[in-house]
Design a protein that fits this description.
Layout (H helix, E strand, L loop, with lengths): L20 H7 L12 E6 L2 E5 L9 H9 L7 E5 L7 E6 L5 E5 L1 H9 L4 H20 L6 H15 L6 H7 L12 E4 L2 E7 L5 E6 L2 H11 L8 E3 L5 E3 L2 H12 L5 H18 L9 H19 L3 H8 L3 H8 L1 H6 L5 H15 L4 H9 L1
Helix pairs in contact: 4-5, 4-14, 4-15, 5-7, 5-8, 9-10, 10-11
Length: 369
């Protein structure tokens, strides 16, 4: 049962459901794992490293050591976790010098997901209604508990597709994202709020938000003492800034998958491309050059919205299936006369489920569990 809007108690986590990606791992002969499970740890030993099992015993098995060394985990990584299973889809994680989590996957997993790295977008889209229900609950909480402020950040992220941010980037590069915004980055004009800041790569952002509910909430958190925009009150009433790890943990708890803030940008980029392509007539005659010009125009529009270069946007944030479906007419047929954001989402989700051969009904049932 969800927490009362006036309660500061944490809403219980939803039941854990087997992630759809576990099926992908099984097909590849792998085991879907998480770095929350027990694993080997790494410790300095002379000029190199030694490894310990979860009980603290030194790893001496030659085959295990060979596997670990083959992962080529950089010496600078900290908080290293190494999978106990040779066939684990995720073999290791660690924190780089900027405190960003880095991943080492099994080669078979890379081969399988390299061709279908956008498959998870269907599960993400199917889980959005569940996330929105939780956001509505958490945004009604009184005061500024962590769940409410995290919900504000996620709601703003869903509205703007802005990067989540990283404290190290803010400190060393003076580049910002949602979780590292300062009060000086916010300006209000009547019923509108503007976020003006320098983002990753030195790109200047000037983003307007018109949603009355979000404007009111952002105004409220800005009035809290301190320079950080998004802060919550802990159990002692002390203000604490939110961080990207907390936001990703919130998404994982609510959506029941290992989704992160980056998935919002992938979903948003693909959905934006879907809508633009639906409004773009096929060129006559449909020459390769004409088709490429039209597609490049769409990619540039989406890249501007995401704050990326067109090359990065094409590679990482737009599912290529929308371009294929546009060229063969499937996209236009599925889009039909969609009106309103929810209808567009359902149309895009239907197309991607067909292309990736994912049962949309099954994905929705899993998301609602």
């Amino acid at each position: 049962m969800a927490a009362s809007p006036n309660s500061r108690k944490r809403t219980p986590a939803p039941p854990v459901v087997p992630p759809p990606m576990a099926d992908v791992a099984k097909l590849a002969g792998l085991v879907y794992v998480s770095d929350a499970e027990p694993g080997y740890s790494r410790r300095r030993a002379g000029k190199g490293f030694g490894y310990r099992d979860p009980e603290g015993r030194a790893v001496r098995d030659a085959l295990t050591l060979t596997r670990i060394r083959a992962l080529a985990i950089p010496p600078a990584y900290t908080e290293v976790w190494i999978c106990l299973q040779e066939r684990g889809h995720l073999q290791a994680t660690g924190r780089d010098a900027r405190r960003r989590k880095q991943y080492r996957y099994h080669p078979d997993w890379m081969q399988v997901t390299g061709e279908g790295k956008f498959d998870r977008i269907v599960q993400f889209g199917a889980a959005l209604p569940r996330l929105r229900r939780r956001l509505r609950q958490d945004l009604k909480r009184t005061g500024f508990p962590r769940e409410k402020v995290l919900a504000i950040v996620v709601a703003v992220m869903a509205e703007t597709l802005v990067r989540i941010g990283n404290a190290t980037y803010a400190r060393e590069n003076r580049s910002f994202g949602l979780t590292t915004l300062r009060n000086r980055h916010v300006a209000f004009a009547r019923d509108r709020v503007r976020l003006k800041f320098r983002g990753k790569g030195g790109l200047e952002h000037d983003i307007g938000i018109d949603d009355a509910r979000l404007v009111k909430l952002i105004r409220a958190v800005q009035h809290l003492p301190g320079q950080a925009l998004f802060q919550y009150q802990d159990d002692d009433g002390t203000l604490q800034p939110v961080d990207s790890g907390q936001v990703n943990a919130y998404l994982h708890e609510v959506m029941g998958e290992d989704f992160t803030a980056k998935d919002f940008r992938t979903w948003g980029g693909t959905l934006a491309a879907f809508k633009l392509l639906a409004a773009t007539p096929l060129p006559e005659p449909p020459s390769k050059a004409a088709l490429n010009r039209a597609k490049n125009g769409v990619i540039k529009e989406v890249a501007r919205a995401l704050g990326n270069t067109p090359a990065v946007c094409r590679k990482a944030y737009i599912d290529p299936c929308v371009f294929v479906a546009w060229e063969d007419g499937r996209l236009q047929k599925i889009a039909g006369d969609a009106r309103g954001e929810r209808q567009w989402e359902q149309a895009a989700l239907k197309l991607m489920a067909k292309v990736h051969k994912v049962s949309l009904g099954k994905a929705k049932r899993a998301a609602a569990a």
